[in-house]
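Methods — Computational structure assignment.
A single polypeptide chain was analysed. Its primary sequence is given first, followed by the predicted tertiary structure written as structure tokens.
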Amino acid sequence: MSVLDHHTIDLSAPRISEAGVADYIALLKPRVMSLVVFTAMVGYFLAPGDHHPVLAITSILCIAVGGGASGALNMWYEADIDALMSRTANRPIPRGRITRPEALTFGLVLAFFSVMTLGILVNWLAGALLAFTIFFYVVIYTIALKRWTAQNIVIGGAAGALPPVVAWAAASGTLSMEPVLLFLIIFFWTPPHFWALALFRNDDYTRAGVPMLPVVAGPDATRLQILLYTVVLVATAVAPWPLGYFSAIYGTASLILGAGMMYLAVEVYRLREGTPANRATRKLFAFSIVYLFALFAILLLEVVVKAILPLVW
């Protein structure tokens, strides 16, 4: 019996939930949520104005819960294909720990209260943007795009790029160019990051019938697209420095980090035609996470330093 056979069950069969707290936490996609929280923190504290600690905590918490709601609703809808993929077969619904109706109810409740809390306690621009983010991820990406087009990640990446925009609106009540730049960095980061994953998880996506780019266009076309999007990503990440929005420290770091991304993207592109995904692909996937976190960490660190210096001097 295979690993998938051992862990999956008939999702259509009625059953009693065996869920524990850990299973509901797993529904929130905590690893994805960590990126949502971190990029939202950067967007919040980059925004102008005084940042009241209670409003800051409320805003970040609501954005985190909204992201978790999106994850739960995504797992509710995709339980059938999750059961077919080794990467996702241990999720709570395929394992039979949580029923699909429970996941749906859990996700909807979290989505409602996160949006309403952010709107009532902070401002309705942020609340509306959070509602749109959840809608985009669940309806546009999960339901409308993922199973039907190889451009699912490209278009759907907008949802993952919105948290710093929501946080900026929560902090300032307005929008400006800085959160748009943060959005664009995450938006162009998403395709090379997820296509690198798709290259070495190609069997999973093929088995589940998900039209990821390697499944539809093949690995060689995917490597080319990864390289092209990486070029756009690096240029987009560096651009805020010469445009005067972010500092020279950020600009220098983005050049160094961008050189690392470009080197790994070229290494992936240079794989011989027909060569299966190898260590270069996995290295690009892993480094892309470091790349994005490092860029945003530098911006957050600058905010902290600027806040501390007046107190020191």
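Note: The radius of gyration is 20 Å.
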